[in-house]
Design brief:
Low-confidence stretches: none
Strand order of the largest sheet: 6-7-8-3-9-10
């Protein structure tokens, strides 16, 4: 479905957005037809979200905006706030990328939806509360009357995203913008959110604009795709045209998905770490009138990691994957057996564990929160040496830091920088360098690529593979992304509700899964 000037309900005409000397959007022009699903695709920094925020008048005061955006015959750029308030949420609405930050933690989700209805449609307090419950039901939230009384932190990520969608469609807009609506979600939850958006668009007769860095995801649901790079539009066309015959090199790069290529099968090495009947439980709220209750996050897990091997631990959020990783390194109170290089880690005291810490390292999911914002990169990477090799001089320590930074693809110029001055991929390389400088044998990688663009993911995965080959490292790679697991893992263990339900060579588990849960994960990840 094309969207020329006559049929477009939402169109951009030569839109440009600048922040000082930085040009975030350059001469952007395209339209979205009535009832169309349009995907705006590009990596972080391509300008796709900025363009939508500019259209809705949501940019900070320092931004400079030129060009035009039209909603039907209504101009949106340069319109007074009162006029925009009559349009936003009613004629055009947006679902933001991270519902946890978009929802107010101080109010129940029902109250927040009701506030939109009272402001947008002028409903009474009682009518707004009743309609809020109906909307929660419409977006597929079970027991909506009870959920309406909950606060955002009491809901799962998928439930929070459904609440955000309910708020966005409350006033039945003609255009719904969904900004990276599935980025932080598991594959199965992401698939359900995409299906929900498609269903709502059909039922409400809306036009839907999907903003995403994942071309493989949106091409299944989009009518048209608009590809943005560095603020400009490089290619537009039907989803079929773009995915089958991409004209621009950048689009071909997005479609190439090198990181999705399966890792060649390797012979397993001798066992380095063996865990048996591993259990992790967290105390629930204290009950003054009865025994203390616990939530079992890990329930009798057995696994083995060989020398030089990568074991992929996959499953949805809440399945217990991260708890397993922390328990193996004695960073979490756990029961069971963990044997590393022939030693029973569970029998060691904290003091006895200290020398082994350098051999057992971890890289966390979000390097921005795991790296101290006040320390320079040289201090962050070299910090472990102060503990494990205190006799090193400052000069020798700096030389070691420079060497490991070079190994992860960062020059010496990064030594004096702070984490906020780096891109997401660069920060993750720093986190990897911090783990490697102590020359570990086993590294737990906890969702190390989930917050990165696809091309950056590919770079980090290639880096991890190269480091494994050169150093003989063993990895426990924790992820909910089956495409990433297929590219990096020799074997895969599938977790569900604290238990491993399936395990085997990567090709076997993902190519011919035995369990229904694994088959559902594979189907949702579009690997089947």
């Amino acid at each position: 479905m094309s969207a020329d000037a006559a049929s477009a309900i939402f169109r951009f005409e030569h839109l440009s957005v600048g922040f000082g000397a930085v040009q975030a959007v350059r001469d952007l022009s395209f339209g979205v037809a009535r009832g169309e699903t349009a995907a705006v695709v590009g990596e972080t920094g391509s300008g796709k979200s900025v363009a939508m925020l500019a259209a809705l008048g949501l940019l900070p005061p320092g931004a400079s905006v030129a060009g035009k955006v039209w909603l039907g015959d209504q101009p949106l750029i340069g319109v007074e706030r009162k006029a925009l308030d009559r349009i936003r949420g009613k004629a055009v609405s947006i679902v933001f990328q991270e519902p946890q930050s978009a929802l107010d933690p101080l109010f129940t989700v029902g109250a927040q939806i009701a506030a939109v209805l009272r402001f947008g449609l002028g409903l009474s307090r009682g009518a707004a509360r009743s309609r809020a419950v109906d909307l929660l039901s419409e977006v597929g939230i079970a027991d909506p009357r009870r959920r309406a009384k909950m606060y955002p932190h009491e809901l799962s990520g998928g439930q929070r995203q459904r609440v955000a969608i309910a708020m966005a469609i409350a006033c039945e807009p003609r255009v719904l913008i969904a900004d990276e609506p599935t980025t932080a979600l598991d594959a199965t939850v992401a698939a359900k959110i995409m299906a929900l958006l498609a269903d709502l668009k059909q039922r409400l007769g809306m036009s839907l604009i999907l903003i995403s860095h994942d071309l493989a995801l949106v091409r299944r649901v989009a009518d048209r795709i608009h590809v943005m790079e560095k603020g400009g539009l490089v290619e537009s066309g039907s989803a079929q045209e773009i995915t089958r015959h991409p004209a621009h090199p950048y689009t071909r790069m997005l479609l190439a998905a090198d990181f999705l290529r399966a890792k060649p099968t390797a012979s397993p090495g001798p066992p380095l770490l063996i865990a048996g009947n591993l259990r992790v439980a967290y105390p629930l709220r204290k009950n003054w009138f009865g025994p203390r209750r616990f939530f079992t996050a890990v329930d009798g897990v057995d696994l083995r990691i060989g020398v030089g091997e990568t074991l992929g631990l996959i499953g949805e959020s809440g399945s217990g994957k991260s708890s397993v990783g922390r328990a193996l390194l004695r960073l979490e109170n756990a029961r069971g057996r963990v044997e590393y290089a022939g030693r029973d880690l569970m029998a060691l005291s904290r003091k006895e564990m200290l020398p082994l810490r350098r051999e057992l390292q971890i890289v966390f999911q979000d390097p921005f929160s795991s790296l101290s914002p006040r320390l320079r990169i040289a201090e962050i990477v070299g910090e472990g040496l102060l503990i494990h090799e205190p006799g090193l001089s400052g000069e020798m320590r700096l030389a070691r830091v420079e060497k490991v930074l070079e190994e992860v693809g960062l020059s010496a110029s990064f030594l004096t920088r702070l984490p906020h001055e780096l891109s997401g991929g660069q920060r993750q390389r720093v986190a990897i360098a911090r783990a490697l400088i102590l020359e570990p044998r086993l590294v737990v990688l906890d969702e190390p690529t989930s917050a990165l663009d696809r091309s950056v993911q590919a770079d980090v995965l290639r880096l991890l593979q190269r480091l494994q080959d050169s150093r003989g490292l063993s990895y426990l790679f924790i992820t909910h992304d089956l495409g990433v697991a297929r590219a990096i893992a020799d074997r895969i263990a599938v977790m569900q509700a604290g238990r491993i339900v399936e395990e085997g060579p990567t090709g076997q588990v993902l190519g011919a899964p035995r369990e229904n849960y694994t088959r559902e994960l594979v189907a949702s990840a579009l690997l089947a």
